[in-house]
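1st attempt posting a full record on here, be nice pls
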Amino acid sequence: MIFVVHFDWPRVNPSKTDEDADNCLSGYARSYKAPCLVGILEENSDCSNRRVVLALYEALTSRNVNTVHQILAPDLEWWFHGPPSHQFLMRLLTGASSNGQSFQFVPQSITSFGPTVLVEGCDPTRSISWIHAWTITDGIITQVREYFNTSLTVTRLGNPTDSPSSSVASEISSASSLHHCPSVWESSLSNQVGKSVPGLVLAI
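the predicted structure (as tokens):
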């Protein structure tokens, strides 16, 4: 399923100062500022992209609306694969989440390949494993591919040194199509949910 998500989180109270917002952050989120303010792109690209994504998870955990709006594009493109009941992130960002539907995303591994940042986590008590493939453009998250209870293999298409603008992102279901596409990453937590899960391939 593909969505273009427009967020319905309440905006930060105008009376809340930047200093107040900073005090709400912790860990990576506290160190994150809007790219135009701190020149985040001057850092190593992979490192800065990982920092952006980790800052988002910190902001989601603390429900820091200001930081979430800084990090995510307002017209975020969303791809989802998994049970419809597991669309926790969409419900959280669109304001449709309730206490009974809450799910805390705790990253257990993070890897990046240029503009693509892969994050994986698992909640064995609920038999749920999840993977997020985030796309970062100029310090802003513009796309997320979300996989629940899915085994994911990531392959590289074309020249690894190609610029992000020339990269192609697609899912390939036929293994024969991957003959010339080296695998660069495989999910490792999907086998912890205690049941068989489907497998997909993401080409970047």
